[in-house]
Design brief:
alpha+beta; five-stranded antiparallel sheet; two-stranded antiparallel ribbon; 32% helix
């Protein structure tokens, strides 16, 4: 546990007091530090551990963290990470070759008790196979339906210099800029 000491100093003449400011936190006026927030997000998204189970685990350790509190932390942390996601998107779309995929996922439809088909859009970049030095990356976007999202993804890909090889209505889209980078070796002939 980390203890923060902030002494209060009072003026004997005017009865005003002053106190040192709190150290900066990822969530304004919040208690969790970056390590705890990272643990909750990794447990939720990488380890697929739902928030209600995390709440029970924390309860066994003597910490009273309700699922709604954890959900609030997840929401605020993802808002903090949005600039990072946008930077990854710019990096991916700046690639020589961009690969895109539209994956259908089931989503609970609010108020109906049924599931609807949503879309997880993935754009990827990996130029290592032809000697590129840019790091590989994947960029994900979620849409509750196919209305509007495919044209935006495809238009961003084509603005980045790629020509779609299939139509946006297809479930899978692969794009290629039509040329190899200058540093890439020529394809070798098979023996």
């Amino acid at each position: 546990m980390r203890r923060i000491v902030r002494p209060r100093l009072a003026c004997s003449g005017c009865e005003a007091f002053t106190q040192a400011a709190l150290p900066s936190r990822p969530i304004e006026r919040g208690r969790p530090g970056p390590g705890l927030l990272a643990h909750v997000l990794v447990s939720k998204y990488a380890d697929h551990l739902p928030l209600y189970r995390q709440s029970r685990i924390f309860e066994r350790e003597g910490l009273d963290l309700d699922r709604s509190t954890l959900a609030d932390w997840v929401g605020k942390t993802t808002a903090l990470l949005e600039p990072l996601a946008e930077a990854i998107g710019r990096h991916v779309l700046a690639g020589q070759a961009i690969f895109a995929d539209d994956t259908p996922v089931k989503m609970l439809a609010p108020g109906t008790g049924k599931t609807a088909t949503a879309r997880l859009w993935t754009c990827g970049r990996d130029e290592r196979s032809w000697g590129g030095d840019a790091p590989p990356a994947s960029w994900y976007r979620f849409s509750p339906d196919r209305k509007g999202q495919p044209p935006r993804i495809i238009s961003q890909v084509t603005e980045a210099g790629c020509t779609p090889m299939v139509t946006p209505s297809d479930a899978r889209t692969a794009c290629s800029s039509g040329h190899r980078p200058a540093a890439a070796p020529p394809p070798s002939a098979a023996p």
